[in-house]
Write a structure and sequence with these properties.
This protein has 287 residues and is mainly alpha-helical. It is built from 15 helices and no strands.
Length: 287
């Protein structure tokens, strides 16, 4: 029978996420803490992605809210929470951090469109900004100003995820690209959901590419804004976040080079390239 720590490690590894490469260079304690926290995020995110019955998904998220409350009262029952709770006092992880992540997953259940970028940013704050805040604490934050950097970097990473997953999300009937951006580039949500079928191919490709390039440019600016917010005092400690920025920024450039591919396949970097980008940040301290 596996331990809670092994369960969390297996859950984190099973996602195949680029986060793995950023965790590699951490000391054991910090790696155990971020792995448990990331496993929690995967658990609640899987509620949305894997449970097809909305009623069951709502009930499961409600269970997770109760589990967070019980865990902070010393009664953790789920192995992920059992693995995470010992680290919460040391790294300042609070119940509200975890509940906000659940709030973001709840938004996924309750809405599949976002009116404008401001609305999308609120969603990103829940599912990525707060994740960035907790991660920065675990990595070794010493300056309060680093929290602003962490929120901005979380936004940049989530925008990249959204652009990478346009096709996969469309298959679930979700379009995260803001409605006012769709209108600006004359792209209809139903065209994205149908991958352009029923539209004149060259015309749709032209409109969709323009929309995606606009989204990529905004995400690239967000990375630049995040890096500008990182205090020099915390630059060394926050190397894992910089590794993520390096990997995801490279992925974003791949998406921008041929945006239409996101409708038909998942664009990704090879494990060797991810490791190289992470190692470069570890060795040189820069992207």
């Amino acid at each position: 029978m596996s331990t809670p720590e092994q369960y969390a490690a297996d859950k984190a590894a099973a996602s195949g996420s680029s986060f793995y490469y950023a965790f590699l260079f951490l000391p054991n304690d910090r790696r155990a803490a971020i792995t448990a926290f990331y496993a929690f995020c995967r658990e609640v995110d899987d509620v949305v992605d894997e449970i097809r019955d909305p009623g069951v998904a709502h009930t499961t998220l409600a269970w997770w809210r109760q589990e967070v409350g019980k865990s902070f009262n010393g009664q953790a029952s789920h192995p992920v929470m059992q693995a995470l709770m010992p680290w919460c006092p040391r790294y300042g992880i609070q119940a509200q951090h975890l509940l906000t992540v659940i709030d973001g997953c709840q938004m996924d259940l309750d809405q599949s469109r976002y009116l404008d970028f401001a609305n999308l940013q609120q969603y990103c704050h829940c599912v990525a900004g707060v994740v960035g805040e907790v991660a920065a604490r675990i990595f070794g934050q010493t300056d309060e100003a680093t929290t602003r950097y962490a929120h901005r970097l979380g936004l940049a990473l989530q925008l990249t995820n959204i652009l990478r997953d346009v096709g996969e999300d469309a298959a679930r009937g979700r379009v995260y690209l803001p409605i006012d951006d769709l209108q600006r580039f004359d792209v209809k949500a139903h065209e994205i959901i149908k991958r352009g079928q029923g539209s004149e191919p060259d015309d749709f490709a032209k409109r969709f590419t323009a929309l995606m390039q606009f989204q990529c440019e905004r995400a690239l600016r967000t990375y630049d804004e995040a890096l500008a917010l990182l205090p020099a005092a915390d630059r060394r400690n926050q190397k894992p976040g910089l590794m993520m920025a390096s990997i995801y920024r490279a992925l974003l450039l791949e998406i921008g080079a041929e945006p239409s591919l996101v409708l038909t396949r998942r664009i990704s970097l090879t494990p060797l390239r991810k490791f190289w980008l992470a190692w470069k940040v570890q060795a040189l301290g820069r992207l």
